[in-house]
Automatic annotation (TrEMBL):
Originating species: Radiobacillus deserti
Similarity remark: Belongs to the cation transport ATPase (P-type) (TC 3.A.3) family. Type IB subfamily.
Gene for this chain: cadA
Protein name: Cadmium-translocating P-type ATPase
Subcellular location: Cell membrane
Full-sequence range covered: 305 to 592 of 640
Length: 288
């Protein structure tokens, strides 16, 4: 049977936009020592826009091909790339075959018997990307932009930089959690320089970049003795949300993240995490 104090915490949470999926989670949040945040869609708004096109030549067919391939993906970066490339050409879209979408890496396909890859260093190779247009990748990444490269038959022909904005409540939320003595960490599939810039903007000192979904899970397993909560939004955060003591999903996150999480932040408001912890601590005081 559920205690009145627990019931009251759950209902007060609901009024504030914090959905606890059960009394245990409302109870466990009080003792959380570390909170791990996903980057894209969690600390950031998850609505990137293409800010830079760096291509060896302006070729409308190249843009049409990229658009056609990225239409096969529902990654937020793919949506932004579709939007930007469709304005660059008026060609018919080519047929796309053998599409493979690699979580945390990018997308690969065959178009007119040529092999195309769009993604990061894990998909196209670190060396190849770094040697393209001498130093440009680092410069863009240091601005906090995500760099996505394009290769055609294994030759890099260009890249996009995409800018996402940090959520307006992120800095406040992190600061409050730190004042509570909670350790904060950011995990991301993005590259190290981009990760560093975004972590800095959010006020988070610890981050791990180039994380595949499994790497996120392994990180959480490594620190499990610390009573850890994970905050995420994406399909690929679901395994990490399930592994953490308390999984917290952003309200506008993917269905899978919402289903897997123990707590949902209804309005994507990160400052509600500290409120939820307060509710949980007050509730535990009454129970004990
Ligand atoms: P995060 O952990 O920041 O939410 P993801 O794990 O979803 O990021 O993606 C990590 C990286 O994989 C992206 O930064 C991008 O380089 C690459 N990527 C994934 N999907 C795509 C795609 N459809 N097109 C281009 N790049 C992609
Ligand atoms: Mg995300």
């Amino acid at each position: 049977s559920i205690m009145p104090a627990t019931l009251s915490a759950i209902s007060r949470g609901a009024k504030q936009g914090i959905l606890f999926k059960g009394g245990v989670f409302a109870e466990q949040l009080a003792n959380i020592e570390t909170i791990v945040f996903d980057k894209t869609g969690t600390l950031t708004n998850g609505k990137p826009i293409v800010t830079d096109f760096i291509f060896t030549k302006e070729d409308p067919i190249v843009y049409a091909t990229i658009e056609a391939i990225e239409r096969q993906s529902n990654h937020p970066l793919a949506k932004a790339i579709v939007k930007a490339t469709q304005e660059k050409h008026s060609c018919n879209l080519p047929n796309v075959n053998s599409v493979q979408d690699f979580s945390g890496k990018g997308i690969q396909a065959v178009v007119e018997e040529e092999s195309w890859k769009i993604g990061n260093a894990k998909l196209l190779g670190e060396q190849a990307i770094q040697s393209f247009e001498n130093g440009v990748v680092s410069r863009l990444a240091k601005e906090g932009k995500t760099v996505v490269a394009v290769s055609r038959n294994n030759e890099i022909i260009g890249l996009f930089a995409l800018q996402d904005t940090i959520r307006s409540q992120a800095v406040d939320a992190i600061q409050t959690l730190k004042k509570h003595g909670i350790r904060t960490v950011m995990l991301t599939g993005d590259q190290p320089e981009t990760a560093k810039a975004i972590a800095q903007q959010a006020g988070i000192e610890e981050y791990v970049a180039s994380c595949l979904p499994d790497d996120k899970v392994n990180y959480i397993k490594t620190y499990q003795h610390e009573r850890l909560a994970m905050v995420g939004d994406g399909i690929n955060d679901a395994p990490a949300l399930a592994t953490a003591h308390v999984g917290i999903a952003m309200g506008e996150g993917s269905d899978v993240a919402l289903e897997t999480a123990d707590v949902v932040l209804m309005k994507n408001d990160l400052t509600k995490i500290a409120h939820a912890i307060d509710l949980s601590q007050k509730m535990n005081q009454i129970i004990k």
